[in-house]
Q: What sequence folds into this?
């Protein structure tokens, strides 16, 4: 029973949940908040392997897996995503939920012995430091230029990939998504969401249908190019679609429908 509960909790750290959650938040709530949160999350996915390569603390031997444990990647990304949302949304009920969720993720990681308390503490410490630096950057940069934070972080991410001895394929997921989302958010138009009552639900539906389509269309690429190139291309287009494509398609359909 506890195994099932822990697995369910760790599902919130998976790419599927994060894509769905951020997509819905970006398209239906406030773009700026969820886009900035996603940039921080993706950059953390690039920073964490580099930090692990510095400390080189091995995983628990009982896992029978190779790799480094400190700081915990799952905990660091969870802390950065939900910590940033907690900071920006500033609602007591959401803050309570976010704190409970972050604690639950840590408990689940301990339950499966993926990490120990030191790994989790390191993740929270580095996550908090990253969050603070990112907050300063967001404050200093004019808000209209925030979409291009992703491009700057992607450039820094390339340096981290170069400096990480065994750069993992998932680092290229973050790199592709940073570039795609930055371009998409920068290109998005500010349409009047109140003008069309059903626009939000249509946009979310279009986003998810597009994501599924992109996952299917890119499958043949996996056997043609390297896993790093495959990850970059797939998640570049997924991020571009969510940040711009889905809303652009619904907007065009809406305009044509109004003319009829």
A:
């Amino acid at each position: 029973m506890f195994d099932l509960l822990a697995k369910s909790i760790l599902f919130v750290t998976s790419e599927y949940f994060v894509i769905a959650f951020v997509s819905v938040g970006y398209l239906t709530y406030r773009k700026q908040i969820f886009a900035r949160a996603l940039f921080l999350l993706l950059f953390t996915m690039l920073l964490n392997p580099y930090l692990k390569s510095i400390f080189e603390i091995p995983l628990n031997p009982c896992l029978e897996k190779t790799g480094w444990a400190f700081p915990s990647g799952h905990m660091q990304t969870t802390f950065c995503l939900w910590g940033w949302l907690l900071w920006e949304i500033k609602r007591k009920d959401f803050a309570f939920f976010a704190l409970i969720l972050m604690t639950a993720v840590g408990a689940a990681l301990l339950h499966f012995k993926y990490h120990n308390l030191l790994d989790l503490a390191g993740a929270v410490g580095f996550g908090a430091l990253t969050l603070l630096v990112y907050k300063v950057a967001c404050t200093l940069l004019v808000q209209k230029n925030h979409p291009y934070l992703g491009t700057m972080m992607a450039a820094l991410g390339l340096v981290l990939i170069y400096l990480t001895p065994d750069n993992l394929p998932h680092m290229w997921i973050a790199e592709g998504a940073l570039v795609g989302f930055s371009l998409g958010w920068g290109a998005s138009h500010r349409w009047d969401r109140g003008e069309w009552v059903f626009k939000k639900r249509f946009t979310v539906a279009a986003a998810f249908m597009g994501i599924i389509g992109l996952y299917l269309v890119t499958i043949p690429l996996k056997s043609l190019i390297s896993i790093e190139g495959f990850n970059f291309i797939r998640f570049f287009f997924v991020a571009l679609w969510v940040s711009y494509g889905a809303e652009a398609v619904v907007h065009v359909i809406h305009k044509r429908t109004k003319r009829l």
The CA atoms of residues 75 and 211 lie 26 Å apart. The radius of gyration is 19 Å.
